[in-house]
């Protein structure tokens, strides 16, 4: 090991001219950090950091002298504290923003780490500290070099390559295996943000114990679970799958996720003629599914199956349990049945399907559902719906229906806790996006109301603007000056399988130019944000309260995320939202279309401090924290693992699989042990929670 020269990062003194100048910058300069550590010298640990901005390096080297009286974990904690504090001081004094960190390791350590995703080790411990303490996405990589400084510089270049061009607050680029279109979550494990202990700390003991028990069953039986959907990024399904795969990897469960190769022409069909029609947001006959639409969609699904998931690909042919997320790729179901007859198939319906319209013969919804159900979805073993009766379409026997709400992750970028400096940084980032799009930004000294949602015709964005107009009129009537009145923030991510985003965004901009809204347009921030989870987290955490005025909704995770941040939510009684909000306790429910009622609720929340504080106090109670458990990743993962262990044939009597009846011939679901279960549209949790 080359001798360390003990170079130090240049840390500016507070009050120095350069320090003061750096404070005036609108947004901190993005840098990327490499870290290398050597444990070779007895009695001391040598370490080096290198920062890189794409042009210049700045390095730091130091030695940590170990204390024989301290335990290994205590030594590691001290070392991590020193490294984190050194990096924080360096970044803060220069107004740098560390976007990503690569922590290098040797080949031996890399093999050990790769073999056991749940293994606790110094590298992983340091990774999680960077994630929680500095809001920097942490990665690991095998390094070689003549010195620690060279290794640290190599790590900095590597993480720079992984991240750029990216947006502040992003995780590294989403990697997809070109051979199978498998989503390699967290760069196939190179990005390590969390350990199992972090999930355990946020989960009640009965649920956690059940999770460990079921994961052990899966591992002992060597079960293989796979998910299918249309896109790896954008929308609630993708967010849930990233979190699910992350936790399953830590648990050691063989769980994988595959997506289709994008086709914009097909996405127009699946969004406007599937999704929008099912939700009833359009009755225009131009969106009725035509035979040419069916042919194109089926051909696309079959091509994806043949090219990526079919015979010999090691995907469908080796799977035990397969979950289909929504109808986008459901045309592959008959091919799954043919290739792997013993695979158990679950269809997971995430969107609101207007059961009333789907029951009217001759309606667009009826014809669409008849096509998808009779040809494809009816061949699955179990239908999972959001827990709303009206979401279960006709012809789906309730004996084959189980219920499960959507979930979010308490520890990922969308929900993790943030420091005041993080919140201010992301406010400035948001304002830069707003400026680029010609929108007002968020003021640093005024409260704001927020709705986070895709720019989608079902999200009720025109209602939000009208309710805000009425709210502002009420505040003016009460004598509040304009600079004392809240702003409105409308923002969200896009998705590659959603062609409506630009159309709806343009419609909202035009709406703000109407005479009735023009007086308040300078206080309404309308921004389409790039893929940055922490950016959404920060602007939601900085809000006064949240709105969710969706006209049609499945189970809105943004409501869960708002409540988890102790933000009262005013929402329409749409879809699954009333199951998420306790009216008058954690939020306020208003009938769909009643914008005046929304304005009244906003006015009271804003002007009656005691009333507002009652909501905050309730949201912070242990009872509410406990109720929200079912909407987070560990609880959701228990649901999936329970279904996998109950449905899979592997590990049961082989005769059970060979005697499997046709799906259409049984009333209920043929279980892995040969019994027939009638689910009767009950929550999945009801089947495992009692034993937990």
Automatic annotation (TrEMBL):
Residues in Trehalose synthase N-terminal domain copies: 228-386
Gene3D superfamilies hit by this protein: Glycogen Phosphorylase B
GO molecular function: glycosyltransferase activity
Gene Ontology BP term (one): glucose metabolic process
Superkingdom of the organism of origin: Eukaryota
Keyword set, alphabetical order: Carbohydrate metabolism, Glucose metabolism, Glycosyltransferase, Transferase
Domain Glycosyl transferase family: from-to ranges: 437-618
InterPro entries: Glyco_trans_1, Trehalose_Metab_GTase, TreT_GT1
Family, per entry: Belongs to the glycosyltransferase group 1 family. Glycosyltransferase 4 subfamily.
Subunit structure: Homodimer.
Entry protein name: Glycosyl transferase family 1 domain-containing protein
Organism (species): Coemansia spiralis
